[in-house]
Design a protein that fits this description.
With 345 residues, the protein is α/β, with parallel strands linked by helices. The chain folds into two domains: 182 residues, Quinone Oxidoreductase, Chain A, domain 1, CATH 3.90.180.10; 136 residues, Rossmann fold. 28% of the residues lie in helices and 25% in strands. Strands 3, 5, 6, 9, 10, 17 and 18 form a seven-stranded mixed sheet that branches. α4 crosses α5 and α4 packs across α10. The longest helix has 15 residues.
Length: 345
């Protein structure tokens, strides 16, 4: 099968660690399935792996990719009861857990000590024609939801969903500041806010990305500078929550833009992870600082229901053939995309 994989480590240009070529088609073991991939989307996790940064050992050849949608090609021995039929359309939940620990039994697999993502060893990723997956990670996909759209959901859109609705507890009529417009999670958050009646303000240093944020539903798009928090307060009186994936460069704005009792939900720190904590502001204004990572299968199912009911569709920047994975990853590495980049085998 054709696959985009980490073939080596140590190249000066991380993309030189990538190869697109034939690898053996995997065989599903007991309790697992073979997914025929129809579409897979890129995430920065793929670039980090090419750079040699991973929470698990790096052992080439290592197939990249965490997100995919497709059809069930086969099951290994003893498939679990109630799994989708062979040939049916599915979406892949990107989080792998052991399924047996107390957190997993509570449906909180994100707290599993053995939590991993596809492409974290010992698991291969989704940038391939086929991938072997735990049968429990297959989520039925409505026939009207195209594979390319579905493949955008399991990381960026699920992360944004959990940040907005589970961690921040936002509801229609709430207000939110979304830092770093143009990023995958920020774009997903804007679209989810528009679909659910949440008032969103976005920030970006890039004028084109601010203009794009307005088209995606932001009521205002601001450059992050010394006056930004004052502008946010003037528009809202203080937002209920901030979606923070930028980190150090926007942290002060995030804290000063909140209403008393508001929350900063953090799922990344692309500009640095060690800002001034400003604890006096945090305790006096009773601000909550909440970490968030990915989402649960139950949250993915609720996200799918929201997509189905609202007609929301992910913003796709470009679609590439799998054979052109290097060009797709290069575009993401340069930060040129507006929306998700999708690969099609």
């Amino acid at each position: 099968m054709l696959a985009a994989h980490l073939a080596r480590t140590g190249a000066e240009d991380p993309l030189d660690n990538l190869e697109v070529g034939d690898l053996p088609t995997p065989e599903p073991r007991p309790g697992w399935a073979l997914l025929k991939v129809e579409a897979a989307s890129l995430n920065h996790h793929d670039l980090w792996l090419l750079r040699g940064v991973s929470a698990s050992p790096i052992e080439p050849p290592q197939v990249l990719g965490t997100d995919a949608a497709g059809t069930v090609a086969a099951y290994g021995p003893d498939p679990p009861a109630g799994v989708p039929e062979v040939g049916s359309p599915v979406l892949l939940h990107a989080v792998i857990s052991d399924g047996t620990c107390p957190a997993c039994r509570r449906g909180e697999e994100l707290y599993c000590r053995r939590m991993a993502l596809f492409s974290d060893k010992p698991y291969d990723g989704t940038l391939a024609e086929y991938v072997a997956v735990p049968a429990a990670n297959l989520v039925p996909r409505p026939a009207e939801l195209a594979a390319a759209d579905a493949a955008c959901l399991p990381t960026a859109y699920l992360t944004a969903y959990r940040m907005l609705f589970t961690r921040a507890g936002l509801r229609p009529g709430s207000t939110v500041l979304i830092q770093g417009a143009g990023g995958g999670v920020a774009t997903a958050a804007l679209l989810l806010c528009r679909a659910t009646g949440i008032t969103a303000i976005a920030t970006s240093r890039d004028e084109a990305k601010r203009e794009a944020a307005l088209k995606l539903g932001a009521v205002a798009a601001l450059a992050p500078d010394r006056g930004t928090a004052k502008q946010v307060l003037g528009l809202t009186g203080g937002v209920d929550a901030v979606i923070e994936t930028v980190g150090e460069a926007t942290w002060d704005i995030s804290l000063r833009s909140l209403r008393p009792g508001g929350a900063v939900v953090v799922a990344g720190a692309t500009s640095g992870g060690d800002p001034s904590a400003q604890l006096n502001r945090v305790f006096y204004r009773q601000i909550s600082v909440l970490g968030s990572t990915m989402g649960t299968r139950a949250e993915l199912e609720r996200l799918m229901a929201l997509v189905h009911a609202s007609g929301l569709r992910p913003l796709i920047d470009r679609t590439y053939p799998l054979a052109e994975a290097r060009a797709a990853l290069s575009r993401m590495a340069a930060g040129e995309q507006q929306g998700k980049i999708v690969l099609v085998p």
